[in-house]
Design brief:
This is Aconitate hydratase, mitochondrial. By secondary structure, the protein is α/β, with parallel strands linked by helices. The protein is built from 23 helices and 30 strands. It starts with 11 loop residues before the first helix and ends with a helix.
Length: 747
């Protein structure tokens, strides 16, 4: 399975056996997604299978966790009382390194500031049999692609961009920490049987058009919730024109359309990548089982999109949402019309989405042309290598120096500005400005905590070209730059090797193997720590309906996990539930006053911060509810957005619709994620009302609950609330959380 785990093996034989059982039962051609997902069923002979309806019980091959979410996942695993993880698992230190001065200095600072957390993760990994990738090793998804992903794998990761591994033909799904704990505990993992959206690619990529443009185009078509409950499966003759790391880019950003995951069929580009990363034996085995790693001819997709790569133009999406798609040729005029700042303050390349050797090579090819004409970037410019292997290799092959020469700063091998870990100094908060990135997500304030930063996402080579020109009005396909000598010139479309001609340089060794004997290993959590806190079990359901719930906030418009539990400076509290709960919903807009982090306390009638109001209610025994809009909880997989409301006394979240991961996370923590049977009922509820949720004594799958809205004038209205709970998830609610239920079953 990996050279880090010589005793763990790929079970294509079991995959084949399960696929054959399911194929005989369904008696129809299967998509690739179905082959891999159904090939990992716990009971393929008896599992009920209906796309979009039934819940599947699955046996994933492995688990991956990044450091910000691994803290809570490992704290929950410790609470389970189990001695070792049941499947191969890894922890990756990538989220806690703040971009400030440059790679080496920022890494040293992060190791010092986060020593307590890194020590906890390292010792917990050693104690419970989890591999540990030290800070500086790189971003989780790049490490997974280089070392652990393979065609046909079913991998879950505690990060929403885990689908990156679909570029190597695997089904890799982002989840919350509690889901990871289930799998690490050896419990079958539940997933609603996904629908399958087919994206047929024809033609071939060329010129300035890159793999990133495929997903930017798809995001524009499907929007941020169009992929919810579905796997996006790319296929068709155009696939072969995309590199393996390019396919990973497309799958990675599939998270922004709400997709369960995305996947490409096994082909020679994947074989080439496996061989180059020291896994030729896996490629040879995949060749033997290739029929199970591609879709069947004549398989059915629930929706089909066709894209001709030969006609696809470079795209740039934003600002403030990743599905607002523009051709690069048009974004300048749109920006002028909308009043978006044209001057680009910073261009940022890298991140888990676009930090491959090919990405860095194409960006360097653009930079080299500018340097040949005596130009440097007009905008500030940063480069984030995806892994230590990428950093070392682009240093050896000269790409890093070219990018420095054009004005770039090479940051640490980490997430950095993409997740808000950016000590930005060039603007003041509230200053309107534009940045362009090769990242995947551009929600309001995400990169630098400034709500006036207009962030656009595009390919690394377009970012580089725009940073050189310094304006959104520049189209590298048609526009000219003026060289130092006063002569005009046009940038040629970049060309670069998809993989290094020599072998990859692995760089420094950053991996810690779990010891064979960990019986003497200690894992310490200080009771006075401000960074880590052992978990106390949540209270069980008391057997009664939820009466007179106070509305903490009625949210207006988009409410992502960034709005619910902000990242950036709050990342340092990801292992301390009480401390991080001080950021609960501070970014959400209150419909009552149009403000963020300002809600009415129903008892005192004073407006104050959301977390303070929630704590007041908890102290006085007042249970509360949140009212949300469409696609509530889109974005990150962070389960803190579910843990925090539960910790502070919340009992239900009622919305028009949910994002998949967040809905599951809420269920795992014993909360009720409910949706309006009639979305228009959102307008019947006012922040000053009280709600009673009835029907919990007869709580059953598919059976709506009743909500009584009690208005201050004494009148009442009754509405219906839908839910997606199955029997297992109802048991989580009754026990108080999925973890509580696990302990009950152990007893």
């Amino acid at each position: 399975m990996s050279h880090f785990e010589p005793n763990e093996y790929i079970r294509y034989d079991l995959l084949e056996k399960n696929i054959n059982i399911v194929r005989k039962r369904l008696n129809r051609p299967l998509t690739l997604s179905e082959k891999i997902v159904y090939g990992h069923l716990d009971d393929p002979a008896n599992q009920e299978i209906e796309r979009g309806k039934t819940y599947l019980r699955l046996r994933p091959d492995r688990v991956a966790m990044q450091d910000a979410t691994a803290q809570m996942a490992m704290l929950q695993f410790i609470s389970s009382g189990l001695p070792k993880v049941a499947v191969p698992s890894t922890i990756h230190c990538d989220h806690l390194i703040e971009a400030q001065l440059g790679g080496e200095k920022d890494l040293r600072r992060a190791k010092d500031i986060n020593q307590e957390v890194y020590n906890f993760l390292a010792t917990a990994g050693a104690k419970y049999g989890v591999g540990f990738w030290r800070p500086g090793s790189g971003i989780i998804h790049q490490i997974i692609l280089e070392n652990y992903a393979y065609p046909g794998v079913l991998l879950i990761g505690t990060d929403s961009h885990t689908p990156n591994g679909g570029g190597l033909g695997g089904i890799c799904i982002g989840v919350g920490g509690a889901d990871a704990v289930d799998v690490m505990a050896g419990i079958p993992w539940e997933l609603k049987c996904p629908k399958v959206i087919g994206v047929k690619l024809t033609g071939s990529l060329s010129g300035w058009t890159s793999p990133k443009d495929v997903i930017l185009k798809v995001a524009g078509i499907l929007t941020v919730k169009g992929g919810t409950g579905a796997i996006v499966e790319y296929h068709g003759p155009g696939v072969d024109s995309i590199s393996c790391t390019g396919m990973a880019t497309i799958c990675n950003m599939g998270a922004e359309i709400g997709a369960t995951t995305s996947v490409f069929p096994y082909n020679h580009r994947m074989k080439k990548y496996l061989s180059k990363t020291g896994r030729a034996d896996i490629a040879n085995l995949a060749d033997e089982f290739k029929d199970h790693l591609v879709p069947d001819s004549g398989c059915h997709y629930d929706q089909l999109i066709e894209i001709n790569l030969s006609e696809l133009k470079p795209h740039i999406n934003g600002p403030f949402t990743p599905d607002l798609a523009h051709p690069v040729a048009e974004v300048g005029s749109v920006a002028e019309k909308e009043g978006w700042p044209l001057d680009i303050r910073v261009g940022l390349i890298g991140s888990c989405t676009n930090s491959s050797y090919e990405d860095m090579g194409r960006s360097a090819a653009v930079a080299k042309q500018a340097l040949a004409h005596g130009l440097q970037c007009k905008s500030q410019f940063t480069i984030t290598p995806g892994s230590e292997q990428i950093r070392a290799t682009i240093e050896r092959d000269g790409y890093a120096q070219i990018l420095r020469d054009v004005g770039g700063i090479v940051l640490a091998n980490a997430c950095g500005p993409c997740i808000g870990q950016w000590d930005r100094k060039d603007i003041k908060k509230g200053e309107k400005n534009t940045i362009v990135t090769s990242y995947n997500r551009n929600f309001t304030g995400r990169n630098d905590a400034n709500p006036e930063t207009h962030a656009f996402v595009t390919s690394p080579e377009i970012v580089t070209a725009l940073a050189i020109a310094g304006t959104l009005k520049f189209n590298p396909e048609t526009d000219f730059l003026t060289g130092k000598d006063g002569k005009k010139f046009k940038l040629e479309a970049p060309d670069a090797d998809e993989l290094p001609r020599a072998e990859f340089d692995p760089g420094q060794d950053t991996y810690q193997h779990p010891p064979k004997d960990s019986s003497g290993q200690q894992v310490d959590v200080s009771p006075t720590s401000q960074r880590l806190q052992l978990l106390e079990p949540f209270d069980k359901w008391d057997g009664r309906d939820l009466e007179d719930l106070q509305i903490l906030i009625k949210v207006k418009g988009k409410c992502t996990t960034d709005h619910i539990s902000a990242a950036g400076p709050w990342l340092k509290f990801r292992g301390h539930l009480d401390n991080i709960s001080n950021n609960l919903l501070i970014g959400a807009i209150n419909v009552e006053n149009g403000k963020a982090n300002s809600v009415r306390n129903a008892v005192t009638q004073e407006f104050g911060p959301v977390p303070d109001t929630a704590r007041y209610y908890k102290k006085h025994g007042i249970r509360w509810v949140v009212i949300g809009d469409e696609n509530y909880g889109e974005g990150s997989s962070r389960e803190h957005a579910a843990l925090e409301p539960r910790h502070l006394g919340g009992r239900a979240i009622i919305t028009k619709s949910f994002a998949r991961i967040h809905e599951t996370n809420l269920k795992k923590q014993g909360l009720l994620p409910l949706t309006f049977a009639d979305p228009a009922d959102y307008n019947k509820i006012h922040p000053v009302d009280k709600l009673t949720i009835k029907g919990l004594k007869d709580f059953a799958p598919g059976k709506p609950l009743t909500c009584i809205i009690k208005h201050p004038n004494g009148t009442q209205e009754t509405i219906l609330l839908n839910h997606t709970f199955n029997e297992t998830q109802i048991e989580w609610f009754r026990a108080g959380s999925a973890l509580n239920r696990m302990k009950e079953l152990q007893k």
